[in-house]
Amino acid sequence: MTNDATTPAGEVLTAIDRLLDQVDPRRVDLPPHTRLEWLRLARRVHGRVEALTGLLTAEADRAQASVSTAGTPLTSWLGTGENLSRREASGAVLRARALGERPFVAKAATAGEINPGQAQAIGAVLGELAPQLNADQRGQAEQVMVGLAQRMDSAELSRAGAQVLAEVVGPNSADLVAQQEQRAVEVAHRRRSLRFFREGASIRFDGSLPRLDGEAFISLIEAHGEARRRTVVEARDPLHFDTPEQRRADALIDLIAAARHTKPDPGVGVARVLVKLDYDRLLDGAAAAGALGDGEALSAGELRRVCCDAEVAPMVLGGASEVLDVGRASRLVTAPLRNALTMRDGGCVFPGCDVMPNRCEAHHIQPWWQGGSTSLGNLALVCHHHHGVVEPATVGRRDQWELRIAADGLPELVPPRRLDRWRRPVRHRRHGGDGVIARGDPPGAVAG
What we know:
Distance between the termini: 54 Å
Mean pLDDT: 79
């Protein structure tokens, strides 16, 4: 024991390891709420131990511990002791170094205040911002991002670079934001890669594409994969149980087969890009900037480039993010209406679900067979799974999730009474909610 009432890391880890041997495997009769509480606690403990592992790795690497004791680099030492591939060991050491260089992130991660995914996202953003900031500003940026992590997930943090610059640098951050965006585009281009690995009767591959090219690739794959899924659903073939990953693989095979017999023709089959423009900025004559349909920001350079060789559908949004012009409604969801849903919802609206818009279905909140209209105020994007969760019962009533459009025009979910007897609405994080079902009685509530 040390004098400050703390315990050495080795003793703590030994105790955790010993206690895990004593875990009772009998959990058949646990009530559901206890299962979820234990799951949440297990994930928190896992994240804290993973952060501590990263710090210990960074400290061992910095001290050259494996070189002095075993005569090998840390990556080789990890591989011999844990059957890690060289690539896995190298990745673990690189992630650990990034964590060890950021004390505020490391402290928050080991305390369980942020999870490993958030820590990794913060590290990536800080790495991109570092060349534009001095030492003091880098420390401030780290603290700002740790604060943002209390209300942002890893995906949102990865897009928070401009917000961090604005808070750290102040009013003069606009030029730095443009430089950072352009630098990120250049880095993505330099990092483009494609690798193949022959493994028996299979070929495995991985790589990296610049964002615009990658999004076009994803759109093609998802469109073909969704077509395959709908074909199987309509055929009601009980022998088909393809996973989404298998459907994507089949879609890529289809594209490869088509490309064998197709001579590339420049300008044919270009992508259709949804670009979101803020109405107030248009009125003010602000510099051109926009966002893709999934919310990813576009730099001015990227926006100019994509406009050269794509069908551009500008979506002008007002101050409350209402779509001002989406075309005429009809019984089926029209292309303009689908574009409007993509802009408003950004994906599946069920709290905690991150399925992208191109894999979602347009759900009639009031069913068509009940007289519901095919209009923006009666539609929301949901994934295939959550479509079944929110679809109203055709006969009678059931205690289920209900989807509705709130007064501000954004979708929200009302939980079943069994989860919250007051049925307080929850929203997806991208619509300003925290995605958490309220617990307990609201202030001043009277039991009914």
